[in-house]
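Q: What would this chain look like folded?
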Amino acid sequence: MAADRAVGARTRVHAPYFRRRTTIFHLIFAAPCLLVVARWLWPLALPFWAKGGIAVLLLVASQYHFWSRLSSGSVFAPEFPRTVVILFNWAFGAIVLLAVLQLLLDLGTLVTMLVRWQSVHVPDGVRFAIAGLAALLAAIGVGNAIRVPPLNDIEIAIRDLPPQFDGYRILQLTDLHISRLFPERWARQMVDRANGSGADLIVVTGDFIDGSVAMRRRDVEPLRDLRAPDGVYAIPGNHEYFFDYAAWMRHLAGLGIRMLPNAHTVLTRDDARLVIAGVTDLSAPGVGQAGPDLSAALAGSPRDVPVILLDHQPKNARRAAARGIALQLSGHTHGGMIAGLDKLVAPANGGFVSGRYEVAGMTLYVSNGTALWPGFALRLGRPSELTRITLRPAP
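A: My prediction, written as structure tokens:
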């Protein structure tokens, strides 16, 4: 109880940090709605009362994250029935996509006006068509986001890999975001698929949840049944720090998941060894927790043994490569979610968004994620995945 009170105190101390982030969220996510109202809705030849009604509906949908905060105290954990969460994601996604399509339409109209040197009228039919397209794409995107992902098989060559680990299979899960959108039933199906992958080791590279332990206790229970011959190892992601980090670390450990916050373990095959190391998330210092410390994670590890590093965010991959890490497994980016959006996501993540990268002799693999944040659950061209990695010795 004393520990819980201490954690609660830290949460209150850092409340302004979360309030600032929430305010930024609301401002960013209101912008597409304002653009749609001004550039798509207002020019339509509809009665004023109809425009007003549509504008209100758009405004309600665009404030999905505000309603989420009212439902749970956090924009990261919408506590509505799953169907409502799905509908909110579809509506909000349609608004964002319509805003993008409207910008493209405005750009095309402007170019046409400059070429013809005369005004151009955009028929209402064109506006309704792009709205229909946005709604359809949003529906497809939400459907892609909430499925239980398939296995994605890749091979990665590891320098100095002992022959005993040739063909060793690691299943990477990441960004599970277990929540009302990804509830117990989804988690159970995901665990069944993971256990059927035949992996020697399962690793989870952060963002297990969206919600407190009390809110998610039942939904995360299937994780207790994750099984692999060499066990299940994991690290925290940034979302664990939003919901009582210490309580979640205790609860996940109680589910049989071996956490590696700035720590490592050594796997053995006969006399051969392989190090699995993990670090905490970059967001940890912002809430008074220990930040990622690779030196601490590797302290006491055997020398001249390949190291596989679990780091939720890929941003520090170059530093890991400089320390001689053989393979880094990350998530966090959700693969950019939508093809083309990765260009916007890349600068904040060191240029690493999706898939395999060679970084100064180290291989970095950034998974698209097993699920994603329920606040913007769309996938178009960036599918979710259960990543089954087969290790091979590098030539």
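The first strand starts at residue 151 and ends at 158.
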